[in-house]
Structure formats: C-alpha cells, structure tokens
Amino acid sequence: MKYIIQENDQTPAYIQLYRQVRDDIVEGIYPYNSKLPSKRMIADEVGVSTITVEHAYALLCDEGYIEAKERSGYFVIFRSDDGFASCSKYEAPHITLGGHHPEASAEFPFSVLTKTMRKVMTDLGESILDRSPNSGCTELRESIRQYLARSRGIFADTDQIIIGSGSEYLYTLIVELLGRDRIYGIESPSYKKIEQVYRAADVTYESLPLGHDGIESNSLWESNADILHITPYRSFPSGITATASKRHEYLRWASTDNRYIVEDDFESEFSISKKPEETLFGSSPNANVIYMNTFSKTLSPALRVGYMVLPKSLVSDFEKKLGFYSCTVPTYIQFVLAQLISNGDFERHINRVRRNKRKEMQKNP
User: Fold this and answer.
1) How confident is the model at residue 80, as a pLDDT?
2) How far apart are CA 82 and CA 102, in angstroms?
3) What is the pTM of this model?
4) N or C: which end of the chain has fewer CB within 10 A?
5) What radius of gyration do the chain's Cα atoms show?
C-alpha cells in the first residue's frame, strides 16, 4: 500500500485517494470479498485525516466497489469477471411507468438565462446571425471540452465534439456513421425514442433485458449486437444504474470484434454522489465509446441542444461521411450556452441542485 497525496494537485485529497484505491480494486490487488485497510491505518500511512479516508471510502461505496459492514469494516464487492455467471437468480426491480417525463428540466434560474441572452446579444451583435460551422460553433465546443475535462474526467479535442439539436438527431447521426448493416443492442426497457429512431432508420436492433445492475449478462454475451446503446446512469423508465462491475463488463464486451458503445449519459450531472459519475468514455482502454449528453435536463428541453464526443478514430470518418450536414442548433443559442458554461453559471446550477438533493436525502433517508 503506497498511496501518495500530491499536495500541489488541485484535486481534493479524498478524490486522489479514492482513485488510487479504486485502481487497486480493479487490478485485483484487493480481490473480491477482501477487507480494505481500516480508515485509521490508511490515514496514518498516507498522512491524511480519517475524515479524508472516510470520504474516499464513501465514494467507493456509492459506486459499488466496496460495502461497509457494521463493526467489521469495508469489503470489496467488485469482481472483474462479473457477468460470466448467470444472473437469472436476480430480478429487475419493479418498473414504474408513471412520473416525470425523462426530459423534465431541473429549474435553471430564468433570470440568469435572460441576463446571459442579453449580454450575448449586446457583446456579439449581428454575429449571432452568422451561419454555424457544421459541427457546431468553436466557442461552444471548446467550452464543453473544458467542462468535460474538469468535471467528468473526459479528455478530448475540440474536433471530437459534435453539436446537434437533441438526442434523437444525434442517434440518427450515429447510425449513419457506424452503418445500417450493424446490429444495435438496446436496454429493455429503455427510453422509447431510442427504439423508435433505430426502427425508423431500418436497422436491426436487439432488446436486451435489464437486471438489477444493468443489462443481464447472459443476454449481453449471447447477443449478436456489435453496437451497445446504454444509459449507465439511471436508465429510464426503470431507474436502474449500472454498478461498477457492470460498467467494466460493458467495456470488456466492447474490447473485441470492432464493437462500439454509445454512452447516453442523460441526467448523470445531478447524481447525489460527492463526485461526478464515472463515464465509460473516460474509462475505456480501447477508445471505442461514443459519449452523448444534452442540456434538456440541466437547462431546458426547449433549447433542443445535445452533443456527442467521438473517439479520435471516428473523427475522420465522421467528416468524410457526415461533415456536409449543417449544424441544426442556431448560432445564437450556441453562444448563450458557451457563455453559461465558461462563466460558471452552468456548473453553479448543477452543484446547487446536487446539494439540495443531498439535503432532501438526509431529511428523508
């Protein structure tokens, strides 16, 4: 155990520790069902407080790497080979089809939005009427690039980011990019428009049933799909979140045979975890994950703005096949979003919602 906290690193100490312990768990240094060192032991050896260790362990519990057992300590529940055994003994939780529509917006302050709109109009004048570059305005793509790097652990170049008018439009672009001759695997149940888009595009798709922790392993490995479209964080309408083991299983599945994962990361910004949810894009060793998100939940569904981050290996193919498509988001709206992200209003809103959700959880455990 040689954990080191870099004092000159802006990353909080508990996050640094969390990442190092997580990596040891994934690499098998702490195998399944093994007990982690006590909080005091880690604190003494690393030179941090037990509170720092407790925060790091809490994150590992939140993400399904470990679990706390009363009076016994913390034990590893992550298994790198999870998914090869049958999941038939598990049942998916009861699915409620009612409730809010998946694109219902957390209330972004209207006054902040209108203030930003006025500022953009004043500062940029008639340039808001200019035609957008086909992949989206550089200002918005660069703002998203920086936001993803500092907040989501996604490091990409600006040319990997494509702007489009909502998720359905981006789904269609993905089909055109990866090909209609491929077989697409989708969660069952899933957001109905995913299936509707694939059906309208006349591609073959398979519905893969969800278990308690994600797509059932037998269905995943027996599927003929070579493209996997998933919503790892709180799939709609089931509310199922893929565990850490399941996310690694998805990456293993995609490690061979020219397979790709479409990671639909809708709503994950509002996780009550004290750190942003891990992304498959940021964790993939094979650079074959297409990351997608929209501003429907974080700002407003009325804006109809989404984006995807392509693996570097697909950027050239996208430009050749689809580079002629005009961007479907107005230049003015792109400038407004870029301003909201770059001036910090976007992230302040997200953090405020997350804090309020945590408070509600504490009031109603």
Assistant:
1) 67
2) 30
3) 0.75
4) C
5) 21
147 & 288 share domain: yes
Segment 219-262, tens digit of pLDDT: 999 999 999 999 998 888 998 989 889 999 999 999 987 899 99
Nearest to 241 by CA among 196, 271, 285, 281: 271
What are the pLDDT digits (tens) for 308-332? 999 999 999 999 999 999 999 999 9
Structural domains of the chain, count: 2
How are strands ordered across the β-sheet holding 227-230?
161-164, 306-309, 289-294, 260-264, 227-230, 183-188, 204-209
* Cis ω for the linkage preceding 12 (within 30 of 0): no
71-118: pLDDT as tens digits: 889 999 887 665 433 333 333 333 333 333 443 345 888 888 999 999
Q: What share of the chain is helix, strand, coil (3-state, %, to 5)?
A: 45, 15, 45
The residue among 54, 76, 98 that closes a domain is 76
**Residue 263 and residue 338 in one domain:** yes
The CATH number of the domain holding residue 32 is 1.10.10.10
Pairwise CA distance, residues 56 & 254, whole Å: 29
Residue 33 one-letter amino acid: N
Residue 101 covered by a domain? no
* Owning domain of residue 231: 110-354
Which residues, 6+ apart, have CB-to-CB distance to 302 below 8 Å? none
**Would 90 be classed as within a structural domain?**
no
Residue 215 — φ and ψ, nearest 5°? Answer: -60, 135
Q: Are residues 175 and 251 in the same domain?
A: yes
The secondary structure of residue 127, as a DSSP letter, is: G
**Which residues in 54-131 belong to E strands, given as ranges?**
66-69, 73-76
Average pLDDT, whole number, for the chain? 86
